[in-house]
Amino acid sequence: MLYPILAAGLLAATGAAAQDTPVLTVYTYDSFVSDWGPGPIIEETFEATCACDLEFVAAGDGAALLARIRLEGARSDADIVLGLDTNLTAAARETGLFAPHGIDAPALDLPIAWDDAEFLPFDWGYFAFVHDTGLENAPRDFRELAASDYSIVIQDPRSSTPGLGLLLWVKAAYGDDAAGIWQDLSDNIVTVTPGWSEAYGLFLEGEADMVLSYTTSPAYHLIAEEDETKTAAAFTEGHYMQVEVAGKLASTDQPELADAFLAFMLTDGFQSVIPTTNWMYPAAVPEEGLPDGFETLIEPDRALLYPADEAAAIRGEALDEWLSALSR
Amino acid sequence: MAERAQPLTGTVAAGLLAAAAIPALILVTGGAVLTKATGASGLGPGDWAAIRFTLLQAALSALFSVALAVPVARALARRRFAGRSLLVALLGAPFLLPTIVAIFGLLAIFGRGGVLNAGLVALGFEPVSIYGLWGVVLAHVFFNLPLATRLFLQGWLDVPSERLRLAASLGMGPGAIFRHIELPMLARTAPGALLVIFVISTTSFAVALTLGGGPRATTVELAIYQAVSFEFDLGRAALLSAIQLGLTGAAALFALSFVGHAGFGAGLDRPTRRWDGKGAMTRTADSVAICLAALFLILPLAAVLIAGLPALISLPDVVWWSAIRSLGVAAASTLLVVALTLAMARAAVRRRSLARPIEGAALLAIAASPLVLGTGLFILVFPFADPTRLALPVTALVNAIVTVPFALRAVLPAWQKIEADHGRLAASLGLKGWARLRLVELPRLARPLGFSAGVAAALSMGDLGVIALFADSDTATLPLQVYRLMGAYRMEDAAGAALLLMLVSFALFWLFDRGGRVDADA
């Protein structure tokens, strides 16, 4: 006899709770929501101001995230997608699932001009080859690297966003000579891993002298582990950037909350968490500046980045070059 | 042995239903993926290269695993020594290791900075590189040599001790015993073992890519990943998945046609004892085989242990919670595997003509791309429910389906032998249904069934294939947590969590396997 009453009570309770606090659903990549990523702190900070329930949903990496949104289409529960990069935004825009973010001239601290109606950056970084500080005569560009005996681990551009970034880096720096660079690099490449984690793990295990990662990677070792033995090689041809963005879905049932979140994303409450959890540069440097240790990182002279449409158009050709150069 | 037309009994119907569930799931999920496809692009030259490489490495992996397993299993069957039962149990471990854990364990020994190369350089030799086709094969042999050894050892243990006693009293030497007793047993066991390992190796993704050294080592599974994630070309993903299934199907038909029936006649279930192999030559050969295999398998495991120990005690709470979640998944999927396997094996034994179709259907499960399975399930579930809420049940289901073929491979031959040895007596006594199962069959199935349950439980702990698509922060399983720690630069904690994963998987396997092996070591 008690059960129906209990059930009715529970239903009423959850119903009431759902009515009182609106839920904002943010799809993001896996490492963002992990207990060691920015997700938990950002959730707490935003919920303190929004009278809402911020729910992060993890979907693999950036590429898997876009695939997930495409699978779900306009029926998706997602209000915001956070964690695509500029190599994916052209395809994301093409789906027609994203709405304009509506923020005019956002205050950003990027090394490049930003003009995108749908996608707003939340952090960014430079790709770089990370190595031990003890490495003698660290290469200063791709040609030196290819001519040296140093071994590198890289990621596969067909399954990893850093891998794709490296592909576009070489293409942006060398254009038609890119295929030749890859051929010269092939004897330096120990192996090509499916994702960043495997590559970085191999490097730390001593399987290679250098690993494709970010200029900010040494900051992790310095700040979290007080280990000063890691640094990144500065390349004279410039470093390719990864700009990570968020966008609002047109199908959102919480448009005001979504707008509030995007605005919050560029404030200190969000941005100050980024450097020491996501180990990237914040898109808008918080008032207190960057954490101690970031000043030790190399700062490239030139920032390379294809605009989203160009990156999408060039990818197929660059991938074919890469495949044929490394398959010999 | 012509079979008369028989009515469809409940046993047979249940087995058929269980067997049909697997191709049905593959078809339905594949179909679901196709519904989202927008115009399929054909296969490019890169895809054909991937297919060729996949077949080559899988064939080599299967051949080497099986060829090396024969002397090891034979030595283990002939010898009794301190620590033998521990070694036999340890044989389960590599197969059950999550890929990423195994890769790092192997690299600690065979990698550029590994123990082997340190030794070679110290002795003045050139260091060797693990990366390339042979690295991929080495890793697959590491995974599968123990599996093949266990399957063969099972075959050796299934030889009735009466036959060996007879052989001894006839004064047969090792050569004669090999020809008359062991060779027929191997001929019966090897095709199945080859097939299972071939099929497992075809779906290799992380191993092939990480150790393959570059895009030459591209497998079909990577091409599927690329099609789904980076190109969102679901038509191509489904096509590639169908090709992978087709290749496996062809291999299955070919190999299963060699799988024969047990031909030893009945024994009295006495503990197996060997009288042969007392010569110095065979003793030395056996010792060498056992020592080399033990070193090859145990060193990488030891490396995982050493890397993980410092962080094991101080692991964050969330990692322990993930371990508990993974245990729940493993328990559910083990139950499912045992039920499915018993139903399928029983039907295959009662209606002999169904044995091959049933086993063939089960094998499709390993060949199915986990990514296509997961994506298909996602598409099917999404209109009705929030996929993240179903993350753990879906993981348990897929893990169970993928594990059934291993369980069936261990249980079915044993059951067929029981039927051949004791079937007529049981029938003449009028033992049927539950009574026959309880009195005749289950006691003799305890060993393979325990092994199967152990494999199922441990594999479910380790699997990552499907959870990544469904999981959110609250449903992360232990393998996913290992990846998250790595993604957050926390390689030491990741090594600790990986060790925990290894220990729990192994403990589960040991628990079930031990339960079924009470008579294995007198």
UniProtKB/TrEMBL annotation, chain A:
SUPFAM superfamilies reported in the protein's UniProt record: Periplasmic binding protein-like II
- Per its record, what are the GO molecular function terms? thiamine binding; thiamine pyrophosphate binding
User: What Gene Ontology cellular-component terms does the record carry?
Assistant: outer membrane-bounded periplasmic space
Listed under GO biological process in this entry are:
thiamine transport
**Cited PANTHER family:** THIAMINE-BINDING PERIPLASMIC PROTEIN, THIAMINE-BINDING PERIPLASMIC PROTEIN-RELATED
Q: What is this protein identified as?
A: Thiamine-binding periplasmic protein
Query: Which Pfam families does UniProt cross-reference here?
Result: SBP_bac_1
Family statement: Belongs to the bacterial solute-binding protein 1 family.
Question: Which keywords does UniProt give here?
Answer: Periplasm, Signal, Transport
Q: What is its main location?
A: periplasm
Compartments, as annotated in UniProt: Periplasm
Question: Organism, per UniProt?
Answer: Kangsaoukella pontilimi
Q: InterPro entries this protein is in?
A: SBP, ThiB, ThiB-like
Identify the stretch annotated as signal peptide in this record: 1-18
TrEMBL record, chain B:
GO BP annotations, alphabetical order = transmembrane transport
Provide the ABC transmembrane type-1 domain boundaries.
Answer: 51-255, 323-512
Q: Keyword rRNA processing: yes or no?
A: no
Checking SUPFAM superfamilies in the record gives: MetI-like
Protein localization: Cell membrane
Which residue windows are transmembrane per the record?
A: 12-34, 54-73, 85-110, 130-152, 193-211, 249-268, 289-315, 327-349, 361-384, 390-412, 449-471, 494-512
Keyword flag Signal: no
Q: Which GO terms describe its cellular component?
A: plasma membrane
Its membrane topology: Multi-pass membrane protein
CDD domains according to UniProt: TM_PBP2
State the UniProt keywords alphabetically.
Cell membrane, Membrane, Transmembrane, Transmembrane helix, Transport
From the Swiss-Prot or TrEMBL record, give the protein name: ABC transporter permease subunit
Source organism of the structure: Kangsaoukella pontilimi
